[in-house]
Amino acid sequence: MSIVTLLPFIVLIGAMFLMTRSAKKKQQAAAEMRNQMQPGTGVRTIGGMYATVKEVGDETVLLEVAPGVHAVYAKNAIGAVLADEEYNRIVHGDEPEADATVVPDDASSLTESAEDAEHDAVEVSGEAKTDLTKKADEAEADAEVKKDAKADGEADGK
Question: What's CA 7's distance to the chain center, in Å?
Fold first, then answer.
């Protein structure tokens, strides 16, 4: 057999090795995350339910899914252990602190400082800039309509 014939098999075995190694690392990270659960911790199950941990056993965890409502889940059913701030924001609708980082609605605030935005809004003469793009677009559209109307009129006249 030649090396060219064996090359695909070697590549396939190497890819399988890397995939299983990656999967094992993910499983170990998930197991470590589940072992860090303590009573009072907020969690999300793999089904998407948010709950508070009440007791942690070897293979199971007791969750409070609503005030006074408890359910026993397998540890493997826990999808994520959440930070207190994140859990309270999701479950209770708590707003972030005033000094917390606020994500802007548009990208312009990520590239411009407030001073740059104010400077761009006012020219040196003190007059506000006029946005001509909409007027230019409207004028261009009107010219197209007139051109089409003229072409239609010439076509009708011939």
Answer: 40
